[in-house]
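Human: We require from you a protein record containing the residue sequence and its fold in token form, and nothing else.

Assistant:
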Amino acid sequence: MQNNYIIGVLGKKGSGKTEFVKSSLANIKRYIVIDPLEEYPGVIFYDSVELFAFIDEVRDVDFKIIYRPLEEEDEENFFRIVNEINDYTLIMEEVDLWCDSYNIHPELNELTRYGRHYKRNLIWISRNPFEINRFLTRQSDLLVSFRQTEPRDLEYFKHYTFNKNLMTMKEFEFAYWGDRDIITKILKKKTA
């Protein structure tokens, strides 16, 4: 299997994106969740300085961290921190806050581009594919999508071959495109 993975999870609000990721966390030993909507339980940090001190203490053991930034300035420090840690997974809810269709945060760009050299994994979550920078979707090894009905989103997904029809799936059902091993061996999801 490869050194790292990048996973994108897409779907409209209430479709099951966050629950899909939450149910996968038991299979991931070291992770940090950027949680701007306060949806994840766990050891919560609001300040990057405290977070960095904690990570420094647990650098060589498993950790499960929730980060809820209070200030934009603190986010900048956080992004520098995540590119100093190795062998972990960064989970970014509402990734379009840091990566829109025109721009990508420089540190997120670095993580996406060079994370494989340091076993830095990324799971990003968003509602609409058109809101995400093409660089991020292009670098993703796996895309998971919940039911899609918006014509513009369906047009975007026309270039991918998902294992199911995105328009006809039931509520909370997902389809995937990309590396099947990631979804079955890492996320431990059935791909029926």
